[in-house]
Every structure is written in C-alpha cells, then in structure tokens.
Specification:
Elements: H1 2-20, H2 29-61, H3 70-98, H4 101-114, H5 116-125, H6 129-144, H7 153-157, H8 167-173, E1 181-184, E2 188-191, H9 192-202, H10 222-238, H11 243-248, H12 254-271
Antiparallel strand pairs: 1-2
Helix pairs in contact: 1-2, 3-10, 4-10, 5-6, 8-9, 8-12
Length: 272
C-alpha cells in the first residue's frame, strides 16, 4: 500500500508540475513560476516522508536469511519433494485406504502422548510452570482414561490442551539465533539451532532408540526406531493428504518458499 501511495504521489506531482509549466492565459509568466516553486516545496516534504518509509519497507523485504548451503538446500529440497511425491504420498494413500480415519487419529494421539517428556522438559526449561502442569495432567488423564493416549480426553473434556515445546524453541527462547538454514534428508527444512534441538530432544524421547537408555525406550534397536519414525510420518501424512500439494502450488521457487515459511513459523512458535 505504501508503494502504491508513493508512486501515486510521484505521478501526481509530475503531471501537476508539467501542467504549471504552461503559462495560464491572462496570467503573468512569473506567477506560473511562483506556483511551480510553491508546489514543489509543498510536495517535497511529502515525497521525502513516503520515500523514507518506502526505503525502510523495501530494505526489510529484501533482507535475506543466512544461507551458505543454498545450492545443497535447493538440491535436497528437490530430492525430498520427489521422495514425497513418488514414495511417501503413495504409501500414505494406500495406508489411508486400509485404515479408517478414527484409527489413524487414535495412533497420532498415542504418539503425541508418548512425547510428553519432550514437552514437559522444555516447558520447565522455559519456566512455563502452568504449561508443564497442564502437560502432566494431560498425560495422566490420557494415559489412563484415554486408553494410553488414543483418545484425547484431557483436551476434549477437561480443556487441557497441549503446549508443544522442543529444545530448539527453548534455545530460541533464551536468545539463541537460528544460524544457517539446512534441509535435512527425509525431515525437510531446519536450521543449525533446531538440528541441535532435535539431538537433545532425542535423549528425552521414548520413541528413539538409545542403547544406554533402552530400558526407557519403546524401540529396542535402530531398525525398530526407523520403522516407528516411518510409521509416524506415513500416519501423519495420511491424516493430511493434499496439504503439501496445496502449500507448494503457490511457490515460484520451491526451496526459498519452504525455507521462509519454516523460519517464520519457528519465530512465531518461539515468541508465543
């Protein structure tokens, strides 16, 4: 809108100035010259004000993220896109055809419930005691009355909603910058801070195999952990078929489009 106003003022000034350059019939030329001078000095302040605002807005819009891995990220985005189209999507469609929506939703709820330690620890690390209390209440209710988390009883009947926090958000909460952007194989957009967050969260997640903590983990080996991760993502995509295609249809260039969406969302998550 500011750009449109700025251009309109420039155009208006130009045409008015051109019009006053022609002597008015019956009026002295000096009067016309005086009108030009008065018009120019009046509009100059307005033009300068809009020019400054326009420059500030333009400089903000053209500010780019730190992206030293640009070429790799473009290549990996294209590779992930092909994997999604030719592998994950067909598997998800077949999976959705076999399993009813209610079962898929129940599995999603159960997996989310099992990730309670990640949410609890990061809410506590950020000093969000009320959120940590809500998460504990949700876990107890959904793990018992909700049949091991299959039914979100706490959210539906007790108004206890999830407070999704991870270690990447915790680092951001304390002012750690995102660092360089990186696209991970199979995972998708991320950045240096969030990669570190994924590693730390892996130590608290019961869904990721760790030979030193295997008594607290569901998968008992790396193969089980990989299969569980694949199941989680197929189930998630089966619940949201068509969402990725709808998202990327507006992209002129896929990688910058997905990168900017990811970084903006993470900034929004951290600020909440």
């Amino acid at each position: 809108m500011r750009k449109l106003i700025f251009i309109s003022i420039l155009s208006l000034t130009f045409f008015q100035a051109c019009g006053t350059k022609q002597p008015i019939v019956g009026s002295p030329t000096e009067k016309s010259d005086q009108n030009i001078t008065t018009l120019s000095s009046t509009d100059e302040m307005s033009i300068n004000e809009f020019s400054d605002e326009f420059s500030d807005e333009f400089s903000t819009e053209t500010k780019e993220l730190f992206d030293p891995l640009y070429d790799y990220n473009v290549w990996m985005t294209d590779a992930n896109d092909q994997l999604f189209i030719h592998l994950l999507n067909p598997l998800s469609e077949a999976y959705a055809y076999i399993l009813p929506h209610a079962i898929r939703l129940g599995l999603s709820n159960a997996i989310h419930n099992l990730k309670y330690p990640i949410r609890l620890s990061n809410n506590l690390l950020q000093g969000k005691i009320k959120n940590a209390s809500d998460e504990t209440g949700r876990f107890i209710i959904n793990s018992t009355v909700g049949l091991l988390g299959v039914i979100d009883v706490a959210g539906k009947y007790k108004n206890l909603h999830a407070h999704n926090e991870d270690f990447g958000q915790t680092l951001g909460y304390y002012g750690v910058g995102s660092g360089f952007h990186i696209v991970l194989p199979f995972v998708g957009p991320s950045n240096a801070r969030d990669v570190l967050g994924l590693i730390i969260d892996g130590y608290t997640s019961p869904l990721i195999y760790d030979k030193n903590l295997k008594q607290f983990r569901i998968p008992k080996n790396l193969q089980d952990s990989t299969l569980l991760y694949a199941l989680e993502n197929i189930n998630k995509n089966a619940l949201n078929l068509g969402a990725y295609e709808s998202l990327k249809k507006d992209a002129i260039e896929l990688y910058p489009f997905l990168r900017d969406i990811y970084e903006q969302k993470r900034s929004s998550d951290i600020s909440e």
